[in-house]
Predict the 3D structure of the following.
Amino acid sequence: MWMTGLSGAGKSTLSTAIAARLAAQRPVELLDGDDVRTFLSAGLTFSRADRDTNVHRIGYVARLLAKHGVLVFVAAISPYAETRAQLRELSTAAGHAFVEVFVHAPLATVIERDVKGLYRRAQAGEIERFTGISDPYEPPASPDVEVRTDRDSRDACEAQITAALAARGLIAAA
Amino acid sequence: MWMTGLSGAGKSTLSTAIAARLAAQRPVELLDGDDVRTFLSAGLTFSRADRDTNVHRIGYVARLLAKHGVLVFVAAISPYAETRAQLRELSTAAGHAFVEVFVHAPLATVIERDVKGLYRRAQAGEIERFTGISDPYEPPASPDVEVRTDRDSRDACEAQITAALAARGLIAAA
């Protein structure tokens, strides 16, 4: 489950909640972009090349886990459509389902939320290359799932995602 | 199973053979230092700091896999005793057994074998910071298992390692 979207859109929140709920049913792991960056990608910048390297490392680890039957949620901005397409190819080639989940909240909404205060700092020029402000985000053209966290309740978004898992036989139907 | 030793000592060979044999019995994964470097640590040098970063990344991935019941073989030179001790602590703290396997062949032997031609190049000064030639290797003071690949047959070395696994309940006794 590749959760892509702007910072603050709800990728980690949704992934954490769903992963926790599914853990009783099947092996599940959450690879959170921020955490993973600390462990796998310290020193990388937010240039396109380094963002791609970071995301490919997460993909590599996700495939290793999937190979052993683990359902993996990746919560990472992963702003580039081409890179996400590469990850889909690599995953599919390895025999694993790749489900692109667009965790969608409009930029105005995440700026308004600004849970971590990062947008304010980015707008003030204190953070370089901040996705949505000073760095691009390419929304998925045809995501497998799209949840609108600005309009729909968290429960409704979770239900959409678990329905997509069930439809693919990755979890038991509710 | 943390396989440490000089380049050419037999870490990958032994790990590959044992992992292949155990795969029918339980989930098993091999993280080979050379492969992993490509995926997780491109751009890192062979300085102490970068070697440590590389090895810690492998350890992070190994713990993720172990968390889901996978028996992980890591085949990585991992030349620094203190770093291996840290990895043991991290692994133990996460509730996973950490078995340090010293894949031991004397330097003279691996230079003589020189399977990949690397020792010749390192001795000619064509490779910088090559472990054993121009960079240190700190042998384990008290490894959990020590196999002597210069003296003992491959079968005997494999048997020693699988016995250590069985003794820890990580595989069924032979």
